[in-house]
Amino acid sequence: MVKYYISFAILSLFIGSSTFAADASVFQNYVPAGWQLLSSTVGDLNADSKDDAVIVIEKDDPANRKQNSSLGANELNLNPRRLLVLFQKEDGYYPVLSTDKFLPTENDEESPCLADPLGENGIKISKGLLKITLGYWMSCGGWGTSSEEYIFRYEGTRFLLIGHNHSDFMRNSGEGTESSTNYLTGKIKITEGLNEFDEKESEPKTVWKKVKNNTPKYLDEVTSSSLPND
User: Fold this and answer.
1) Which tens digit of pLDDT belongs to each residue from 192-226?
2) Strands, E assignment, the chain
3) Which is it for strands 52-59 and 92-99: parallel, antiparallel or unpaired?
4) For the chain, which terminus, N or C, has the lower number of CB atoms within 10 Å?
5) Which helix (H) or strand (E) holds 3?
6) Is the CA virtual torsion 136, 16, 181, 216 positive or negative?
7) 67, β-bridge pairs
8) Of 64, 76, 67, 68, nearest to 108 (Cα)?
9) Measured between alpha carbons, how far is residue 165 from residues 134, 161, 178, 229 in Å?
10) Spatial separation of the C-alpha atoms in residues 143 and 99, rounded to whole Å
11) Would the pTM count as exceeding 0.70?
């Protein structure tokens, strides 16, 4: 896990969050004026053996870039981001989801030391599931770091949240916890007492809990900040 967070931080600070599929130019048709394409990933989301696409676009408004006089980045990019899901059919792609709610901005005015939560390769399609990972790593102001993976499955006409994986650890002590939530079964597996720096100091203890208020949650109506960290 330590390697993941170090890589996440380096990529966020020095490479940025833009990754492009080989044919990303085809997605420019879904980028409105005043916006830019940040990333794209392809894979089958509706079990029809065709590669669908998930793209992230960001508004390009200079008014949403603010100078920062405190610690952290010199300039804070507060431009909103939009997540779009495109299904492929015989004559091309067509949109099935567009949400401005879920993805956080690159920077945070209240936490200027926070690296881009989306980071590199934050969105994946695997085995028919849409997985969105948001990492929280601060270059100053705190030792804690965490990763939140949200797993969505296409159900009918919407994307249902079926799973959530959380991990965190302290960069000064190495102490960490992990949890894995299955919303279909309503169960949470929580592991505490981990130590990322020294396996001898790890005393992992695993407990199981039930999900509270396990009502269905859909990608088109939730924000990442509104979802529980379980």
Assistant:
1) 999 888 877 788 999 999 999 899 999 999 998 88
2) 35-43, 52-59, 65-67, 75-77, 81-89, 92-99, 123-126, 129-136, 144-155, 158-170, 175-182, 187-195, 205-210
3) unpaired
4) N
5) helix 2-10
6) positive
7) 75
8) 76
9) 11, 12, 8, 9
10) 32
11) yes
